[in-house]
Fold these 2 entries.
Entry 1:
Amino acid sequence: MAVKIRLKRMGQKKAPFYRVVVADARAPRDGKFIEEIGYFDPTKEPSVFKVDEEKAKQWLANGAQPTETVNKLFKNANIVK
Amino acid sequence: MSVKIELNNNNICNEELSDISDILDKKYELSLLYDYYGELLKDNHRRIFGYYVLDDMSLGEISSELGITRQAVYDSIKRSTAHLKEYEVKLSLIAGSRQIRIYCNDIINQLNDCNVDQSVICSISKTLSKILEV
């Protein structure tokens, strides 16, 4: 089963909040996800990006594919090189 | 936009990361545009834009989900972005609500500086939050 790590938009209308979730690549729209490994809150000043580094590394080692956005976030957080 | 990154090993860095800021800024701005003006897009463009900003799907994923070419997805997102930005230029709803948020914070700060009862401040800030939700 292909698994992806993506940002999932949550929060109220006009107040976005994102979860970093691990989810099945085939069902991006149904809202189901396997695990939440962090979040990104752009409404705070400065914006907060928090991620569980160990879980992220474990999922990446197991072959989970991060989306382009998540991959860049991980790069900047030194989770991937 | 400055971004604060927290990792679970308490290794907190608070840096100006231009690359990360660009990506997040872009997604954040696009999702705000979608919230405010998304209803004005045509149905199929709105669906594609929703996949892109709400579900963080790649162009390739969207194209296979909808059975259209990647180029069509790219064009649609580009066109929708241009439309939404044009609405913001003309209507300034996002800029306006940002300004209101700043003024609301000012009001709270000024009240905190005066010798006002905390319960009054609390009730005023609740009302201000309601204004921001409108």
Note: Residues 1-91 of chain B form a domain with the Arc Repressor Mutant, subunit A fold (CATH 1.10.10.10).
Entry 2:
Amino acid sequence: MNIVGPEGKMIPALPDLFVWNEDQVQLMSAHCQSCDTYFFPAFHEQHRPGCSRQGVQKVLLNKNGILKSYTIQHYMPPLPFKTEGNITPYIIGLVEFPEGIQIAGIVKECPFHALKIGLSMEVVTFTLYRNEQGQEVVTWAFQPTDPIRDK
Amino acid sequence: MREVAIIGIGLHPWGKFPQKTFIDLGVEAVSKALVDAQIQWKEIETICSGIYIWGGNAGHLSGQYLASVFGETGIPIVNVYNACATGASAMRMATMSIASGQVDVALAVGMDVSPEGFLGAKSDDPKQDRDVLRWRMVGMPNPIYWAIECRKRMEKYGTTEEDLARVKVLLSKYGAQNPNSRYKKIYTMEEVLSSKMVSDPLRLYEICATSDGAAAVILCAASKARQYTSKPITVAASTLGSALYGDPTLRISAISAPAKAEAPLLSESYSASQQAYKQAGIGPEDIDILELPDNSSWHYLQYLETCGFCGEGAAESMVREGQTQIGGRLPVCPSGGFASFGEAIGAQAAWQVAEVVMQLRGQCGSRQVADAKVGMAQTYGLMGNSGTTILKR
């Protein structure tokens, strides 16, 4: 598994959050074996009270999850959210992974009319902007597992 | 522990005041509170001051700044930041300073001058400050969090767009009658439902603005309160709550939440209100008026459940039936709420307390709740903190 993307072409906007190769993108979580809690980001531990906090290991989450809530955002947030131009309206989805954690992210390739709680989503990348070296600066995102044909 | 009473309150009206500094607002609120309590500055024995987070050292030591303006007297000053619960935290510290017997008179104060637009990030170090991730990786200003919870609620209970709009319509009527509110216009359902969509399903008029304002509360040992006022208001409870493990809320700042709920939604506010009921020895059924944090229409509905005023999914019908109106079973935000004031983070919890005090004193004119005896001020809170104040006459 590549910790950074295909050489030179894409870089994550911030490190240690997700990994990718040609086939899939996966979010980087951590799991506590003592209290069975998953964390995201991996470096922000949030244990069950009384947990010994022993046996925390980095894990990659399943590449698929279920959409549990969403919003369509109509105004651009201020910096430090940086994109190439105004991307509104854009979708933010809350996706639940089989491990037992819900994670928020931008949703792409999904027409608004198809948005529905319960939709199966897969983790993908989303290009925020190109940097001075011409690399795509990317974040994680979600898109419907089964492509939706726009009406 | 000694009983504690509120003997004075002072407000700087809410709005946008580009010519004023946070200390200008704070000084006006404290000056009014001193007059209201008929007390001299030199009689204040401790200051619990809300931090002004955008004001550098002067803002972080706002209590010392205030003391320098009114005249330094060497008293203990503590500056506190607990986001939306900042004023509630100042209230709790002031209450405990008196209840413990250490001082007889205390000042709790909060003041804020909000930056323009969406409230933004405060650091750029994602390893230390998880808040950075939601900005740089996802693009999530606060209303997105509220919209995500609101969408869950709509799915679960069938909340409609009209239910959300009805909250603004109702609150705008009260805000129009409050001399300290920022927004005085009375809205119709059509106007709210045709306002711009911001974070679907929440529209512009269903999300609170960011405002400037200040509020001061002077507290006193109950045994001495009548030296200053004929209408002391008793502090029945002043509590803070933090979050519970397993709270399923996607909390502001976080980009993840547990899939399996092991605690109530908004568990920090649940914790604060439950502690308050225990401390006051009363329950939600005994509350005559409620000031809750209506940062959005979703908050208004959700807080009725979170604080035990109705069962799951029952808030919408409570509002539809008029139970939360003045004259109803539980008048909610007769001040006009954040919908009419906007949030001024460091000041708003102290303002909520001041509004309840005015109601219990019977000073609210056309928006007075008849015969209100017990009132509650409930805050929201960033990253798992919240405060509850229960007052009675």
Note: Chain B has a mean pLDDT of 97.
